[in-house]
Design a protein that fits this description.
Length: about 260
């Protein structure tokens, strides 16, 4: 029955002008252990679902990692967000190397997809310099199927840059498509093993806050996790009008542009 419904949707999408698919006039509500949104996973009132729970959500694709910055297969993740006219915190999640149904299906940005998989708070293993409390929400072992193709662009959430200077404030933005405006780089992109990042300056007077009981994260930065930012010619003390991208987490919180158009000098 599910396969029949999917075929009907695909047939309807094929009838649109230029293959744009059905118009999405209202958010598509998904399900989490029955009914809910991504936000019900990442910020539930009664705590996260049990680790063995299979979850089901309907969401919009906001980014696809097709750039292998390290040359070691660091690609394949997808980022999806709750369908919302005004996106905000807690509404996005990473899909770790998902499978597709049917196997020939490959999503594009702005597709609305049904996702089934195992929700978990992922912690990078065997890196003792990281704080054990730093975790990234993700859905692993997931399977995607198409709900509506090319359903209109998802606007980025407007992010207060100061939120990314502590893990506690920044976690709610992880995996979300965000935009920050009028930001200053304190250094040119640098890194190792193919990874590059250029840190942002603290945007307020004084100094960044200190988070009690948690190791201080590195300053937030623009990173090359989804796109080769070396092509942008970024320099120290450069001010950027706008940076859009996906919030990611390693030793600090990053904004990863998807392509050159996500950065406005």
């Amino acid at each position: 029955m599910r396969r029949l419904a999917l075929l009907v949707i695909l047939a309807l999408a094929a009838c649109g002008d230029g293959g744009g698919g059905d118009r999405l006039d209202h958010p598509v509500k998904g399900s989490v252990l029955g009914d809910g949104r991504i936000a019900d996973l990442t910020s539930p009132p009664d705590g996260a679902p049990p680790p063995t729970s299979i979850v089901h959500v309907t969401a919009r694709v906001v980014a696809i990692d097709a750039y292998d910055e390290t040359g070691q297969g660091q690609q394949g993740a997808l980022y999806v967000a709750d369908v919302a006219a005004e996106p905000g915190p807690y509404q996005a999640v990473q899909l770790f190397k998902p499978a597709f149904s049917p196997p020939s299906f490959r999503p594009i940005v702005d597709d609305v997809v049904d996702v089934s998989g195992l929700f978990e708070e992922f912690q990078i293993p065997n890196l003792s310099f990281l704080d054990p409390t730093w975790k990234t929400p993700q859905i692993s072992g997931s399977t995607l199927s198409l709900r509506i193709d090319a359903a209109g662009k998802q606007p980025p959430a407007k992010l207060p840059l100061e939120d990314l200077f502590t893990y506690g404030a920044g976690k709610k933005w992880i995996s979300q498509l965000v935009t920050v405006e009028d930001v200053l780089l304190t250094a040119a992109p640098k890194g190792s093993s193919g990874r590059l990042a250029a840190p942002f300056a603290w945007p307020r007077d004084g100094v960044p806050p200190v988070e009690e009981g948690v190791k201080a994260v590195d300053p937030p930065a623009i990173s090359n996790e989804l796109f080769d930012i070396s092509k942008l010619g970024l320099t120290a003390n450069q001010r950027l009008k706008r940076v859009t991208g996906i919030v990611t987490m390693f030793s600090g919180l990053h904004i990863a542009p998807r392509d050159a158009s996500d950065v406005e000098p």
